[in-house]
Specification:
The protein is mainly beta and 206 residues long. The chain has a single domain (2-205), classed as Porin, CATH 2.40.160.20. The chain has one helix at 2-15, and strands at 22-35, 46-47, 53-67, 70-83, 87-90, 97-121, 124-145, 152-174, 179-190, 193-205. A hairpin with a 2-residue loop joins strand 6 and strand 7 (124-145). The longest helix is centred in the N-terminal third of the chain and has 14 residues, at 2-15. It is elongated.
Length: 206
């Protein structure tokens, strides 16, 4: 129901008639903290030792201002998550064999956000609002023996998708009529993992 209300809000804002629609393209880099890092997938009995993972990820965002105080945007981000921790167990309960796994995950995200903006000064404004994220994940877990010379045994592959509701807050500084600099924070939760995204980028308006 919350996702339904967020979608209706975005449609209502976009459909509002305006005299002139301000368009902006943002591009930048996000510093992403993921906790826990590995995504549990079917066929891999994960007993995790890896607490979190961090990575840098590029993003691009297109936004419009249908009303002076509101911004509607859509963005794309790509994350490649490499997890080198965790143990995997297999075999009878009495004679379990411990194996170590390395997981590589390709995560694609398309996010729709609706932001309220507050002008602090002629050059500085604050933006805050909900984010609806659609995520597609493809993970491969390579299983190795636990030894001084690990031997590859097999790979477990899995694909999944989800839609989650999160939030964003950002500060935007106006450099010129067509150039802005943005620093933001975004939170979302997907597949039992907390994603904290700290971003910085530049925006070009036309």
């Amino acid at each position: 129901m919350k996702l339904h209300h967020a979608a209706l809000c975005a449609i209502a804002l976009v459909a509002t008639p305006v005299a002139a629609l301000a368009l902006t393209i943002d591009a930048g880099l996000s510093y992403v903290l993921i906790d826990p890092a590995a995504r549990k997938i079917a066929g891999a009995h994960y007993q995790g030792t890896e607490d979190n993972d961090t990575l840098a990820s590029p993003y691009i965002r297109f936004s419009a201002t249908p009303k002076p105080d509101w911004i509607v945007g859509v963005s794309y981000s790509y994350y490649r998550i490499r997890t080198s921790g965790g143990f995997y167990w297999d075999g009878p309960a009495v004679t379990q064999l411990a194996m170590r796994g390395w997981q590589t995950e390709n995560l694609h995200e398309i996010a729709l956000d609706v932001r309220y903006q507050k002008q602090f000064s002629p050059n500085l404004r604050f933006e805050v609002g909900p984010v609806l994220s659609c995520l597609w994940s493809k993970a491969t877990t390579d299983i190795y023996t636990v030894s001084s010379s690990p031997t590859w045994l097999w790979a477990v592959r899995d694909s999944d998708s989800t839609a989650e509701l999160g939030g964003v807050a950002a500060l935007r500084y106006t450099v010129s009529d067509s150039l802005t600099v943005t620093f933001g924070y975004r939170y979302e939760r997907a597949w039992g993992r907390d994603l904290h995204l700290f971003s910085g980028g530049m925006g070009f308006s036309f």
